[in-house]
Write a structure and sequence with these properties.
8-stranded mixed sheet; alpha/beta; elongated; 520 residues; 4-stranded antiparallel sheet
Length: 520
């Protein structure tokens, strides 16, 4: 007689008394968790760039730093999340990961703005933490969920592939939604507080079967509410958060009608709302001096302005040259609204100033050849001229739209060795037969005994000869304190600087770090 082996099922002890075991997320809940956490990581990354711009500038280096930290967080969270999921049951970890992320995300505006105001030396450390912590925790959600959904090795490829695709789709939706919808409609603080609240609510839902998780979720939600209220009193607030800038308008205590437009912490424009002929910044007075000497007094001009800001120069031209038509390409619709609502810009019919919300280079392409007396370049993205406006191809478009006696005048900002300014002058010299440069004597090579200070420079280019002595007299009359150089002296100052092209224009690398440019 053969004895049957005992059934393995019969050897399994009966389940202990207690609450039923959480079965984990179903297929739809798993997809929603992976989709939402991946989207949230990208929302935080993009909005962090906007939040840091007023303090670090919107430069290639800032963007690279934020992207690098975000990718580090994703890699760290995915790696550690996978290891933890293989060692312990990940079910009770999903809710805390979402909840802690939500609290940190919601408090990020308060933490960064307070740190920038009271302890700027710690700003990079705090910024890194506010990116790393939620990024890593949210990235760990995907391996947690994947582990729970793997019930058999036969479906490994299907489950991992499906959830990876869902996560990638979430990242795409988060990127597109933030870039095209959220940033244009909501302040960055509102976006982060709203996202943090959603993450905390998701944590409450994920841990709804656990009394401890429900209590923790309630505490996290209370923290988010308190943080959102405190953010309203945090330093560094904006009069308007535009698609590209944190914009503020500050009244001049010494001039009742004077207003300064500040974008991302930098003074971009000064406007006297009652007297458009009052020019506060030295570089604006220099541009006005160039224009005044290049064209007969009072003659109306057809001008194009690349970059609007406070529209100081278009208003000036309308006042001193009645009948002048100024077309302005300003990429930021929020800045245009600030011009109208806070800086007293009237309708185009009365001022001759027509503002188009468009990229400066695309605006140039739309203009007819030989259609402009004057083109003014004064566009800045953060602390530098947008690189695609500095190249020989862009300047070729400038030359195309100018008539035979037309003039191109541009504001440059550089420091240190002035490597960018030299490269831009070299690029202009390759595009125009006549180029001149105005600035402090030490900065433009006319005082070799003094060291360069850096700051604003004004470069002039034309197909006709430039009357340098007349420009110098106008600068002296306005008390600018600048000199003008051209010809062999300017060529020697430029040296072997490389011409900037669409293929190679390392503007951010040429600019000297460590100094905060500001209009003067």
């Amino acid at each position: 007689m053969t004895t049957q082996p005992p059934s393995p099922v019969a050897d399994v002890p009966p389940p202990a008394d207690g609450p039923p075991r959480d079965p984990g997320p179903g297929p739809r809940a798993a997809a929603a968790l992976v989709f939402g956490s991946s989207a949230a990581v990208l929302v935080v990354e993009i909005v962090a760039l906007r939040l840091l711009a007023p303090y670090l500038g919107l430069t290639l280096e800032t963007s690279t730093m934020v992207i690098g930290i975000a990718l580090t967080a994703i890699a760290l969270g995915s790696w550690l999340g996978g290891r933890v999921a293989d060692q312990v049951d990940p079910r009770p970890l999903i809710a805390p990961a979402l909840g802690v992320s939500g609290v940190v995300v919601a408090l990020t505006p308060l933490l960064l703005r307070t740190t920038a105001q009271w302890s700027p030396a710690l700003l990079l450390l705090v910024a890194s933490a506010t990116l790393l912590v939620p990024g890593a925790l949210l990235s760990a959600v995907t391996p947690f969920v994947t582990k729970l959904r793997l019930t058999t090795l036969a479906e490994t490829g299907t489950v991992v592939g499906r959830l990876s695709g869902v996560g990638t789709l979430g990242a795409i939706v988060g990127t597109v939604l933030t870039g095209f919808v959220l940033v244009s409609r909501l302040p960055v603080s509102t976006i982060l507080i709203g996202l943090g609240t959603l993450l905390v609510l998701a944590a409450v839902l994920a841990g709804r079967r656990s009394r401890r998780s429900r209590r923790a979720g309630a505490a996290a939600l209370a923290t988010v509410v308190a943080g959102s209220l405190a953010t309203g009193f945090a330093p560094g607030g904006c009069d308007a958060e535009t698609r590209y800038h944190c914009a503020r308008v500050v009244a001049d205590p010494d001039r009742p009608t004077g207003r300064t437009l500040i974008l991302d912490g930098l003074r971009h424009s000064y406007v006297d709302t009652e007297d458009p002929t009052h020019l506060e910044f030295a570089y604006v007075r220099a541009i006005a001096s160039v224009v005044d000497t290049a064209f007969p007094e009072g003659r109306p001009l057809t001008a194009h302005h690349i970059g609007g800001g406070g529209l100081t120069l278009p208003r000036y031209l309308a006042a001193v040259r009645p009948g002048t038509r100024s077309l302005v390409s300003e990429i930021d619709a929020g800045v245009v609204r600030a011009d109208r609502e806070l800086l007293g810009l009237g309708p185009a019919a009365g001022t001759g100033v027509d503002v188009r919300v468009e990229d400066g280079r695309l605006g140039l392409r739309r203009l007819e050849a030989d259609s402009r007396d004057l083109v003014v370049g004064d566009a800045f993205g953060g602390v530098s001229v947008p690189w695609h406006l500095t190249t020989s191809q862009a300047l070729g478009d400038v030359r195309r739209v100018l008539d035979a006696d037309g003039l191109y005048v541009a504001n440059l900002i550089d420091h240190g060795a002035l490597a960018f300014a030299r490269a831009e002058v070299a690029t202009l010299a390759a595009a125009f037969p006549h180029v001149a440069l105005a600035g402090r004597a030490a900065d433009i090579g006319l005082d070799p005994t003094a060291s360069t200070e850096g700051g604003n420079l004004v470069v002039v280019a034309s197909e006709r000869p430039i009357d340098v002595p007349a420009i110098q007299r106008a600068l002296d009359a306005r008390g600018v304190g600048w000199r003008v150089t051209t010809g062999a002296a300017l060529t020697a100052w430029t040296g072997n600087a490389r011409v900037l092209t669409d293929d190679h224009a390392p503007v951010d690398q040429l600019l000297q770090p460590g100094r905060t440019p500001t209009a003067r």
